[in-house]
Design goal:
By secondary structure, the chain is of the alpha+beta class. The protein has six helices and 20 strands. The chain has two domains: about 90 residues, no CATH class; about 325 residues, Beta Barrel (Lipocalin), CATH 2.40.128. The strands form two sheets. It has a twelve-stranded antiparallel beta barrel. Strands 1-3-2 form a three-stranded antiparallel beta sheet.
């Protein structure tokens, strides 16, 4: 019985190690050469999509093989067996995993960016008109919470000008399943941070201002085992006009952006790097109705916002192969026919757009020193979806996942503002974006208000 238990434990251990080894191999290249090695990369023709292994006369003494293609490379004769893939199945069958991140996540970044910029300006406009309604025309400084962060404003400091600043943070995640690099997915996760600084002036019921904004995105792109980092800088103008019931505001702006990406060469496991720029344009318009009933106020709204991002063409740089792992007796190449350089990937220019039409409602209850509120909205969206690179070979599987295509979402948020004294107040807010295909977004923020 003791021997049986020992054998059982040994069998389980060997089986577990075998599974671990298989998982590790499927997650990393096992062929030691780049998918685009200049001698045997998949970009060199159909023969390399079927070739399995190279036998060199001087190394292995092999002169022929049934069903193999033959040829010469320099002074050596070689034979390429036709039953497997020399550069690796991952190189052949990867679509999204062999795709630069700009083709997959740039559309979502444009949507998050325009929401952050326009959201900051809209929040400022609402704060300015709220100050007017309360008769607070004197100089003052205030902080308020919003959907994605904390905002600050200063009213009437110099010549009736108002100065304000906003900071926000958002976590974003594509929730598609990722199993291995041979099956398409656009799974990613990460966060963005944004700021806006502006100055404006009221002319009766009108408000006119300028704004400078920045947004930084840091994503882990699981689909290609890489990263995507984008910094956006914009400047714009905005204007608003308010009557006793209706308020309308609009804005537009432009700017530029830098994008840095990485991904894994599925053949030799080295890091492919890319860097490019993009031109940015955005615009928005919003109409809000204001209704007050005792301690409650209702503000239904209809809004439209859009951003266009023109990404310049660039090069994805593949590092050369390592001679210590591919050249030598018994390895992939002899010194006579080795080619350790690689062919870089040329990434074409691309334009992505994000357009959103939103209908929403904000409900506030003024209960004295405690002011709870809820905010609900529904959005219809048209954002450029991910585009995967075509596979070099057909894997014959139906398990590939189509790129996410978000068409609508709804947001549920709420919180409470509170007053500690006549000069000090604050608030907390939380909410989530729901109903968007393969996407999760949650936010939570706090604020403190100081007036004088």
């Amino acid at each position: 019985m003791k021997l049986q238990r020992i054998l059982t434990v040994a069998f389980v251990a060997v089986f577990a190690l075998g599974l671990f080894g298989q998982n590790k191999a499927s997650a990393a290249g096992t062929y030691s050469i780049s998918c685009k090695n200049d001698a045997y990369g998949i970009h060199l023709g159909d023969i390399y999509l079927q070739a399995a292994y190279v036998y060199n006369d001087s190394n292995f003494g092999t002169t022929g093989d049934v069903g193999a293609a033959t040829g010469t490379n320099g002074s050596d004769q070689y034979i390429i067996k036709s039953d497997q893939a020399y550069t690796g199945n991952d190189c052949l069958y990867a679509g999204s995993a062999d795709t630069n991140g700009t083709a997959v996540v740039a559309g979502d970044v444009a949507r998050v960016a325009v929401n952050a910029i326009v959201g900051a300006v809209s929040n400022r406009i609402d704060m300015a008109y709220a100050a007017q309604s309360s008769g607070a025309s004197a100089t003052g400084l205030s902080f308020s919470n919003q959907a994605d962060g904390i905002a600050m404003s200063a009213n009437g400091l110099v010549g009736g000008l108002g100065f304000w600043g906003d900071y926000g943070s958002t976590d974003m995640k594509n929730t598609q399943e990722f199993t291995n690099v041979r099956l398409d997915s656009n799974k990613y996760d990460g966060d963005t941070s944004s700021y806006s600084i502006g100055v404006d002036k009221a002319f009766g019921k009108a408000l006119v201002g300028i704004v400078v904004s920045g947004l930084s995105t840091d994503l882990k792109t699981t689909f290609n085992d890489g990263t995507y980092k984008q910094d956006i800088d914009t400047y714009g103008i905005y204007a608003a006009y308010r009557t006793s019931i209706l308020q309308i505001d609009l804005g537009m702006g432009q700017g530029d952006s830098t994008i840095d990406t990485t991904r894994r060469d599925l053949g030799n496991d080295k890091t492919i790097t890319g860097k490019t720029t993009a031109d940015i344009e955005y615009s928005n318009i919003r109409v809000v109705a204001n209704f007050a009933r005792g301690k409650f106020s209702l503000r239904p709204r209809l809004a439209y916002r859009q951003m266009s991002m023109d990404i310049a063409a660039f090069t994805d740089t593949r590092p050369s192969d390592d001679s210590t792992s591919v050249v030598g007796s018994g390895l992939l190449f002899s010194s006579g026919n080795s080619t350790l350089t690689t062919t870089d990937d040329q990434i074409a220019a691309r334009t992505v757009d994000s357009e959103t039409m939103e209908i929403g409602l904000n409900v506030v209850a003024n209960l004295g020193k405690i002011v709870p509120f809820i905010d609900l909205s529904y959005s219809s969206e048209d954002t450029t979806k991910a585009k995967y690179k075509a596979e070099a070979g057909t894997d014959g599987t139906a398990a590939d996942l189509a790129a996410s295509n978000a068409e609508h979402s709804y947001t549920i948020g709420g919180g409470v503002n509170f007053m500690i004294s006549n000069h000090l107040s604050g608030g907390i807010r939380a909410g989530s974006v729901n109903g968007r295909d393969d996407y999760e977004e949650n936010y939570m923020s706090g604020s403190i208000n100081l007036s004088f």
